[in-house]
Amino acid sequence: MSIYDQYGGFLLNMDSEGNGVVVAKQNQGKSSWVGVPNMINLPENHDELGKQFTDWRLPTKDELNQMYRKRGSLGLHEKDETKKFTGEYWSSEQSINEMAWTQKIPKGDQQVTRIVYPEILVRAVRDFKV
């Protein structure tokens, strides 16, 4: 995993034409899905590099699954009192009737969760072009 500091985070993917996605280097906090737009670009929710950008967004379901597969390199977890990795992260994709897709750590299960549920982690991504 490479750190693409000039783009604000860890490299998630990049195509042959130089279009890529980086993942913020830290979680932006916990929120309901509907509350994410109010918090995702706040400078205080990012590290020094991430504060330079205001075009952060939630990852798609596929991007979130890529993040799950690279979770160790991304620090994509919290540790509970037993030091086990825990957490559930929002994706940008809404499902049906006020539900959106999430992914759980450490098992990688994707499921739909009510968009008003307030205790889901947020880890932003942003697009870049080399």
Helices and strands, with pairings:
Blueprint: E1 3-4, E2 9-14, E3 19-24, E4 29-31, H1 36-39, H2 61-69, H3 71-74, E5 78-79, E6 85-86, E7 88-94, E8 99-104, E9 110-114, E10 120-122, E11 125-129
Overview of this protein structure:
The protein is mainly beta. The protein has helices at 36-39, 61-69, 71-74, and strands at residues 3-4, 9-14, 19-24, 29-31, 78-79, 85-86, 88-94, 99-104, 110-114, 120-122, 125-129. The strands form 4 sheets. The chain has a 4-stranded antiparallel β-sheet. It has a 3-stranded antiparallel β-sheet with strand order 7-8-9. The longest helix is centred in the middle third of the chain and has 9 residues, at 61-69. The radius of gyration is 14 Å and the shape is globular. The two termini are 17 Å apart.
The helicity comes to 10-25%
| Biggest sheet layout | 4 strands, antiparallel
Report the strand count: 11
**Spatial strand arrangement across the major sheet:** 1-2-3-11
- Total number of helical segments? 3
Mean pLDDT value: 87
The Rg value, from CA coordinates, equals: 14 Å
Order of helices and strands: EEEEHHHEEEEEEE
The secondary-structure class comes to mainly beta
